[in-house]
Automatic annotation (TrEMBL):
One Pfam family recorded for the sequence: DUF3112
Region ranges (Disordered): 286-317
Superkingdom of the organism of origin: Eukaryota
Listed InterPro entries: DUF3112
Signal peptide feature range: none
Protein name: Uncharacterized protein
Length: 317
């Protein structure tokens, strides 16, 4: 005979400890409000950069993606504040958890796009080769697939009490989060051959500033993203613990530091280093020699522009 909970059909409050725990007015509302102001500031800054560049014919769609990331985080923090005031609303908890995992993917994409530009400039024979070009497209499209897997698994877990189904959902989450961690490492796999291999005779330059500065900025951003993704993967791989006995990585300090503090550092790095100037390339760059060409329009490569449009269409409106 079914219990009253099973008859209700969910959603059911989780019996396992989760990263961040159940939010409360103190301290979650105050902390979230502080981060909310920061993300709003970065959203305004990046949209201002995007619009100013557009007005002078300098299209750089990645600034729009940074704006989209900030808007996703504004939504995340708003949901968490509302959840803190309605802690027994399980549906709010589901939505908040989904947005925590979703927003940062835009930064992962930005890092890989910038890494491709460095590799194509430093080692054109590798960067422009059909195999890495087509392979990168596969990796791009697997990213939203992994996100869909995570979202589906989270929702299903909240709407079932069947232990087998929950175990299957956990396996799906582990598979998806492992791929996301792998994706965050891809920029390093572009940077290493770009700097380790002998200097190419076809080496190009693009944007403002030195190539060394570009490599340092991207490496720092990538390492921070690896830290964010690695924490999420590591905490998920650990054995489940009951709500009454959480581990240190389930606590609020770990949640805010390994998510929002590191993300603010990434935003500071990418925004204030002016990647819109350093990583700009001529419009329609599709082959060796195009980066150093005198293009009349500025923008992103066609394939990368497609990815940016898919990830954040409103940012390019």
């Amino acid at each position: 005979m079914l219990s009253s909970l099973e008859k209700r059909g969910g959603p059911y409050a989780s019996t396992s400890a989760g990263v961040g725990g159940l939010p409360t007015n103190v301290p979650d509302t105050i902390i979230c409000a502080i981060f909310l102001v920061m993300y709003i500031g970065f959203a305004v800054t990046n949209m201002t950069i995007l619009q100013k560049n557009k007005r002078r014919g300098h299209k750089f769609n990645l600034s729009g993606m940074l704006f989209g990331f900030c808007m996703a985080r504004i939504t995340t923090l708003t949901l968490r504040i509302v959840w803190a005031n309605r802690p027994h609303n399980v549906r709010l908890g589901i939505a908040a958890n989904i947005f925590v995992n979703a927003g940062i993917l835009l930064v992962y994409i930005i890092n890989l796009i910038l890494a491709q530009r460095i590799l194509r400039a430093k080692q054109p024979h590798i960067g422009w080769h059909p195999i890495p070009r087509k392979g990168s497209k596969v990796f791009y499209w697997l990213l939203p697939a992994a996100l869909i897997m995570v979202i589906t698994a989270i929702v299903v877990m909240f709407y079932t009490l069947d232990p087998v189904t929950r175990a299957d959902c956990r396996d799906v989450q582990l598979t998806a989060i492992t791929y996301l961690f792998f994706f965050t490492c891809l920029p390093l796999l572009h940077i290493i051959p770009a700097v380790a291999l002998p200097r190419s005779k076809q080496e190009e330059t693009f944007g403002e500033g030195s190539m060394l500065a570009k490599i340092v900025i991207l490496t720092a951003s990538t390492c921070l993203c690896i830290l964010v993704s690695g924490f999420k993967m590591g905490s998920l791989y650990r054995p489940l613990r009951p709500v009454s006995n959480p581990a240190w990585y389930h606590g609020k300090p770990a949640f805010y530091v390994f998510n929002f503090v590191l993300e603010i550092m990434i935003l500071c790095l990418l925004t204030f280093s002016r990647i819109d100037k350093r990583f700009w390339i001529p419009n329609g760059s599709t082959k060796p020699g195009d980066y150093s060409g005198m293009g009349k329009e500025s923008g992103d490569e066609s394939s990368e522009r497609t990815i940016a449009a898919t990830a954040e269409p409103k940012a390019q409106a």
